[in-house]
Amino acid sequence: MDNILSTTKLSEAQLDVLRPLEAALEQAVQDGRSADAVEITTRIQTLFPHDRGHHRLLQAKLWAFEACLNENRLNYAESGLVGVRKLSSSSTRLYLEATSLLSICMLRQKRITEAKSLIAEAFKKINNIKSDARRHTFQKALIDRINEESILTELIGTAQGNLIETEIHAKAVELIQRCDDSEIIKLIGTNIPIGSVRLHEDLQSFSLKQLPSPDRKLLPPPQQLQNPQQIGKTAFAILKRIAWKTFCKPSSTLYKLWSAKIPKVFNEGYFSAAVASTFADYRIGLPLIASGISALIMKYSAEEFCELAKPDSLMNSRREKAD
Questions:
Q1: What is the pLDDT of residues 233-244, one digit of tens each?
Q2: pLDDT tens readout for residues 50-80
Q3: DSSP 77-138
Q4: Ramachandran quadrant class, 45 (left: phi over 0; alpha: psi -120 to 50; beta: rest)
Q5: 3-state secondary structure of 258
Q6: Do residues 145 and 221 touch, judged by C-beta distance below 8 A?
Q7: Among candidates 223, 219, 3, which has minimal Cα distance to 92?
Q8: How far apart, in Å, do the first and last CA atoms of the chain sit?
């Protein structure tokens, strides 16, 4: 069933209840609290007992499911995004966003054929965005995200060594002492498995081919895919995204020491432990890359890193104003 999306006007009494919940939901998503986001969305759903296709409810669900995707709760995110697609008209922005997020969910699960089908559909639906500026913003945001996720897809489940925190820390310190940032980035890029590079190249080419020629020309030129520097930058971008929650949880010992600039946070392996924990969650066994990531993050202040690495939402592009 395709056209059951509802835009029924809500009463002021309904809005008075809904708006604070939406604000709380957005804050939970920004903080990376997917469980809270789901709980708040469940409360929002009670406001629509006879209108499960209302656009405000579906938008809330999209925020919650994206938060789950960011925390790698893939089965929950997948089922939810499939549901939003079923409840949305295929011409709407909600359907486009759900399709785009579902393609990323498929990539995380290494379901490449399904991901490509969804990517192709998403780029067709982007053409429904009437504003040229907003359309181009979404195109670029989706391509950038696919580029990053293509690197992560093949890193997941790759093991080339044990993640021993003391060894990761020792190598990170050595890199900081001997290398500048560009050299560390290049080291990461050089050590990305060839499978990640090949999938990255394939999906970037596939994504660009989905665009109309005039729109394609407005995007930055394709990355030099065999360039270790560029591969390293893309890898650091996605690895920052998945590590953000571990590094930036305000209640964690790491964050408290880091934000207070207490020297022991740099001397006692807190960064290597956090990177190793993140890599273990994604079954990534690449010690040298873990050391490179640790070294780069140690060069930031807590405030700088946590602002820089905070996952951006594909849905944020709808807030961009047309030129």
A1: 999 999 999 999
A2: 888 899 999 999 999 999 999 999 999 999 9
A3: HHHHHHHHHHHS-TTSHHHHHHHHHHHHHHHHTT-HHHHHHHHHHHHHHHTT---HHHHHHH
A4: alpha
A5: helix
A6: no
A7: 3
A8: 36
